[in-house]
Request: fold
Amino acid sequence: MLNIFLLFLIVYALNLIPAFAPPTWMVFSYIGFTSPNHNGILFALVGATAATLGRVTLAKLSKIIIRKRFMTKATRDNIDSIRGRLERRPKLTAGIFLFYAFTPFPSNYLFIAYGMTALKLPIVAIPFFLGRSVSYFFWGRISAAVAHWVSYDGSGSLPYFGAYFVITQTLLLSLVYAFTRIDWRLLLREKKVRWMKKDPPQDPDQSKP
Reply:
């Protein structure tokens, strides 16, 4: 039970960090290397639960901190343009998060951007949990099969992986910023991409969603 509790805390913390956190699949790969006879299904379900709660918390913090306190009314109105489109296509939104949950790519920026739209979280939380349950079980099992390859080449590729991780995280966070600056009204209406004009000075009491 202690191992399960520690796994939950570690995965939750990693998925709560907005940027530059180690990918969670590495945790399950490590478990597969060190404990090949572990209960893969139980660990995957616990990990998926922790990851989903962590990402949902991150999305809520994105709404409370970024949307309400740092975004101007013009920026919120701009993002609400795409919010209306997503609200009319809940199946597409859920499908995107389900597909993404099967991949090893970082999902922090996806939940940060989604949180800024103030959309309902169960639409993306449920498919994310299902996808992560499968992917975590996969990483835990396949890691044992490639353990010999990693022990041979892992130390030499570690610096390259670290540089790749930093670069990709920086680029993905840049995409989050671009998400708030693209003129979504123009893009959805005329299929043209344009950077929003600079926001006017924000009033001190302008903090409503």
Observations:
- Residues 86 and 93 are 7 Å apart (CA to CA).
